[in-house]
Amino acid sequence: MAFAKISQTAYYVPEQIVTNDDLSKIMDTSDEWISSRTGIKERHISRDQDTSDLATRVAQQLLEKSASQPEDLDFIIVATISPDSMMPSTAARVQANIGASKAFTYDLTAACSGFIFALATAEKFIKSGLYQKGLVIGAEVLSKTIDWTDRRTAVLFGDGAGGVLLEAAQEEHFLAESLHSDGSRGQSLTSSQCGLASPYSDKTENHPFLAMDGRAIFDFAIRDVSKSIKTLMEEGQFSEQDLDYVLLHQANIRILDKMAKKIGIDRDKFLANMMHYGNTSAASVPILLAESVENGIIKFDGSQTLLLSGFGGGLTWGSLIVKI
Ligand code: ACO
Fold first, then answer.
1. Where's the Beta-ketoacyl-[acyl-carrier-protein] synthase III C-terminal domain (predicted)?
2. Under DSSP, is residue 136 helix (H, G, I), strand (E, B) or coil?
3. Of 37, 142, 259, which is best to mutate to test ligand 1, by the most ligand atoms within 8 angstroms of its C-beta?
4. Domain 3-170 classified CATH 2.30.110.10?
């Protein structure tokens, strides 16, 4: 029986930092409003790098840190809702950039749950015994999908990428999993809606920009995501003590505070960095993971157990409990 483990982590964000005060110069908002409602203080916004550029930086770091060769990789999966193009995929662009000639590649679209869904999928590839090594990356340049005249959404998001090297292992590291979708509520969070456009169709409207029913998403996170995490823990017989840290999708500090209460896990176990990055959708959990490894909170020595959880457009939500 083959098992999979996360053997390296890495993240990369564009250099340019845009603070709440910077935003208040181009729209009717304030640091006070943004900080108090979301916890976000600043975000990184790309000047000239697209999603595959950010993902490539992460891939390069993962190879360097593990002293792996690009040809060692069996697959590259990039979770994103802001690809450079639909075709070629972001993952195929990364493959070309790093020269991973043997890897199969594809993008996975599950919004802010994308990295969790991709990691769960990749783990099964390795468990199958067919593949030994691959990259799972969450990467977003959301700044190109945002209506910068809409203060209700523009202040929430940022650009960035994070990822992991996943490898075959001798023992189980992925301890529990739950993945969910509810397409019937999909309209509460939308982006890049392409209308029909052929000479043979009734043309329909384009809605390129990200749009959101903030209240509905807030309630969804508190109710559905908390419930699914509680169920996952109950069914797997994990207690609060079994978890060292919880890494939730970094949408909003108030969501995090409320979910901690609702799930019944000590708030100190919830890591947070949305204050510096905003909401980076599929990149948020892997950026938080890699940053926490870098600053020594996550030891990465096989002694800690983490709950990783994403939730967002689709609607989608999913959690993994992993030993790291
Ligand atoms: N600056 C100043 N005022 C603003 C801003 C802003 N950036 N945005 C909205 N407002 C105003 C509104 O116009 C409104 O004014 P009005 O009462 O005069 O009409 C007032 O603030 C309140 O607006 P609401 O939308 O009701 O604000 P709310 O308290 O719901 O907070 C927020 C909005 C922060 C988005 C909240 O709904 C939320 O946290 N939702 C969760 C959704 C989320 O985080 N989504 C991220 C993407 S989805 C995901 O990652 C899962």
1. 234-324
2. strand
3. 37
4. no
Lookup: tokens for 25: 């110069």
The residue whose CA is least distant from atom 23 of ligand 1 is 152
CA distance 137 to 114: 9
Q: Checking phi first, is residue 142 left (phi over 0); if not, alpha (psi -120 to 50) or beta?
A: alpha
CA angle 247–321–242, rounded 5-degree value: 90
**Active-site choice (20, 249, 252, 273):** 249
Rounded to the nearest whole angstrom, what is the distance from the C-alpha of residue 259 to the centroid of ligand 1? 18
Q: Check if 3-170 and 175-323 are the same fold.
A: yes
Per-residue pLDDT of 187-209, as tens digits, reads: 999 999 888 989 999 888 888 89
Q: Which residues line ligand 1 (CB under 6 A)?
A: 29, 33-34, 37-38, 112, 151-152, 155-156, 189, 212, 214-215, 217-218, 249, 251-252, 254, 279, 311-312
- Residue written as token pair 């195929």: 92
The CATH number of domain 175-323, selected from 3.60.15.10, 3.40.47.10, 3.40.720.10, 3.30.450.150 = 3.40.47.10
CB burial of 30-57 (b: ≥16 within 10 Å; e: otherwise) equals ebeebeeebbbbbbbbbeebbbbbbbbb
pLDDT above 70 coverage of the chain, percent:
100
Amino acid at 178: S
Rg (CA), the chain: 19
pTM attached to this predicted model: 0.97
Find the 83 Cα to ligand 1 centroid distance in Å: 26
Beta bridge partners of 168: 4
Look up 194 and say whether it is catalytic: no
Rounded to whole angstroms, how far apart are CA atoms 11 and 222?
28
Question: 218 CA to middle of ligand 1, Å?
Answer: 10
Indicate the domain borders of the chain: 3-170, 175-323
123-140: average pLDDT: 98
